[in-house]
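Hi C.,

You asked whether I'd gotten around to modeling the 561-residue construct. I have! Everything is below, sequence then structure, no commentary in between.
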Amino acid sequence: MDNNIAITDDYILKLLIKENGNLNTCRIKIPWLKKHGIYDYLINRFPGISDIQKIVYWINNKMESNPICSICGKENIRFKSFSAGYYSTCSQKCTKELDIETSQLKNLTDEDILKIAYDKYGRISPEHVKERWLKLHGYYDYIMSRYDDSESICETFYRIIHKIEIRPTCKECGNAVNFIGKDIGYRQFCCNDCANKNEGTNIKKKDKGIKSLIESYKKRFNLDIEVPSGELREKVFVLNYCPNHPRIELTWLQLGNRLKQHRNLCINCSPERNSETSIETRIKNILDEFGINYIQHNRNILKPRELDFYFEIDNIKYGIECNGVYWHQGLHGKTLHLEKRKLAEKNNIRLLSLWEDDIKYSLEKIRWFLQTKCQKNKKIYARLCQIKEVSSKESKEFLNNYHLQNNCNAPIRLGLYYKDELVQLMTFGKLRKNLGSKSKEGVFELYRLCSKGGYSIIGGPSKILSYFKKHYSWNSLITYCHCDISNGDIYEKLGFSFVKDCGQGYTYAHYKTDYKRINRFNLRKSIIDDGSGRTANEILEDQKYFKCYDSGVKKYELKNN
């Protein structure tokens, strides 16, 4: 910095504010501010304020005192960020009162509702039909009082958009009909009896559609099609297509799918494919190998969700979810796996979420993992094993061979040896920064617990843990349970206490990597930064990476009392 330049508020804003009005977050770090000689000016600009973002916000908005709550007049309003500013109220109580006032002050009309009804894609916004959003923005009372006979918020939105003042009734008997959804609207008939009475009308419509479809298929694919009448009208016959089978019987769905997929239309020469995916087939083969009686593709056990596989062993209920990386990415729902896991826990089902890349590239590990769950392992008793410290090289090789999450470097590596062969391993170390923890004196983390594939070490984990307690000075031991593959019961048996549910983690994937998931720390901003000033998410989205969210993580703690 030039010492002759006078530091003023305008000079600060010129340095720290971008042309688009946003704060340059790269420049508000203390080393940068000190290097350019403006740190002391900012810290002393407003006595009692040390948050750089808040200081710049005050300078930019020419503030000299804290804002006050619009309800109670107190000054203890929390600061959000430079872009968002301050909260409008000081507490949840004041926020509720503000919502009531806002709702009462608004003189709303249907035109106001139409302005907030649609999202940027031209669809009814799913966010804006939620009760909380409507209350927060003052639309809830108007929506609830708009129609006396409306049964839901979605129905009210639909009627306002389509200008339906009188609720539709059944075309046959005049009774009220059910509302299906905001994208479909109302049913035509109140019950199946009324719908069946109008079968003639439906048949005419169907005949018209079938004739149009036949003409389209004949013109585009040069097919000779015959449609039966009466009860068989759902079927279709393709004539003179296959030299071996001159008359092929198909459903309209089968015909349409085979034409789209450019497949042989003859269902005899080319039978229907199995509905299960390739990764499900591999899991199915493993379960068959172990002689497990399972139910596949069931929606009744965990309503309304589907379980790819369900089985019970010694009164323990297991469900397996086979996650295709592309089809289970975050764009299809960030919390789908978390919600499904919690639903399974409520039904006392241990849900195992196995990912496509693990099944494809680590199938032997998956086989050993399921062999353990199916209680098909060979048993070794810990009293017959010798405990030793394990070398870094041997630990790395062991974890990469047998643990689904592979190796994690650790300073403390304790293993059980049976006949001079490592059969079980525990690794420990300080709290990891990449999990949002700061290292503390006397606090350790259990990184990995892993057994040799195909073996169960009876009493092994407690023996290794007892050795750790005796030979190391510790106050607390932390560990994390990855809920895709475990429910944490092993830690509870070892004396750990459940601390909290840490929410979800995520990985990245890309079609160029054959949809193999990548640890998010390998794609952090410091590695992929292209100098454009964009966030890591923006850069990765531009490069067509997508996120895959897991089933969540649980935290456990064992204290040295």
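If it helps when you're writing up: The two ends are 55 Å apart (CA to CA).

Thanks,
B.
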